Amino acid sequence: MRHRFIDVPLNSCYDSYDMQEPKKSFFARLWDSIRRESQWFRPGLGYKRWLILVFLGTTLLGVGLALVLLDVYRNAPDSWWLPILSTLSLRFLDRPIRVFIFGGLGVVLVMVGIWGSNRSLLRPFVPPGKPLISALETYRRRDRGPRVVVIGGGHGLAALLRGLKQYTHNLTAIVTVADDGGSSGEIRRDMGILPPGDIRNCLAAMSNNEDLLSQVFQYRFTAGTGLQGHSLGNLFITALTEVTGSFEEAVAESGRVLAVYGQVLPATLTDVRLLADLEDKDGKIIHVSGETLIRETEGQVKRVWLDPANTPAFPPAISAILSADLIVIGPGSLYSSLLPNLLVRDLSEALRASRALKFFICNVATERGETDGFSCYDHVRVVEEHVGAGMFDLVICNNHFRGHLGRDVEWVRMDQKLIEHTAVYCADLIDPDYPWRHNSTQLAKTVMDLFYERTGPLVE
Questions:
Q1: How far apart are CA 103 and CA 95, in angstroms?
Q2: Which residue segments constitute the domains of the chain, with CATH numbers given?
């Protein structure tokens, strides 16, 4: 294949570039550089305190060196190098001028040295194309964020965590371990460990490297003997459980691998099973064991409970709840994701004892076999029937209904009963691409705006 090249004068390229981007003068570029680097002195970065310490140490070092030179001047015998030293110290100038010259030069050298060392040390950890000062500012802002605990499971909880990680690093997800279906259920039966599926979803959602590493973590094998249907993350957590000897340690190590700020905690370390009573079309009560059968059995769920009933909570989960500034329950499957957490007795007691604000996020759409025909009030009513009334300070509902939901799925709408029952906030929370799910960005923004509206910004 022959390629044709167009002969363009080199000067014309420069001319067109100069017409689009006028070249700045030296002083303009210097001013832009000074203005850009002066952002390091903005409040809240935690940088100035260390800079002051460096200057203090440099000053003391300079005082010590000055004392040594003064002693040399006074006590050393006349020597050939004394005139040279006198010239280098600018003794022919007035003392204020010398102080200004040496002091200014010292400040410049210290600043350049600190700036260069910071860039060299931090460059491997800064995302490409993102300024160092912006990365530091983002980290500090999130590090000072409120302590938020989110309780639930499934894709709803992962969506909320994906949005909340943009606001705070002090994020804790408490996840149900009652799942007995799919890859998690198979691992649970074969390996005798807690189901890792919901925990895997939360770890991936909270990862700071969600572009690639978490996608690999979420990868599900579509073929292969013994691998088909399993996700890589589930197998990874299972392997770490065997290596470390404990499920909770395996979850913590997985969080470190995924660069997760915050923590994902199981609600309990007990091998629990979800039980339910369902009412069929004839009004007959059917007893069902297992989350999967609850979903698949036709009938209206009347109540659910855990076996064993007095399941102890995971102690770090209780500590996280008691020290939280904000607790968010939901979104997620009402009977199979939210209630299995709240039915852990110690967790529900900790929720009542906590002085944090408590928000309940209602689902956008109903779920087949669980909440058919439910309104927002019905979701709140069911939770209160199982764990008691007065649990929530605010209920957050969606009030925009657009898009196609699919067969046997309806919008969950806010009704007058809920307004009379508790405080309610409604907003557009749906994902345009998947209208039966929440938009993670909009949901997290709504939650944090409501939190700060009631508490004001937190300060160190």
A1: 12
A2: 45-136 (no CATH), 144-176+267-455 (3.40.50.10680)
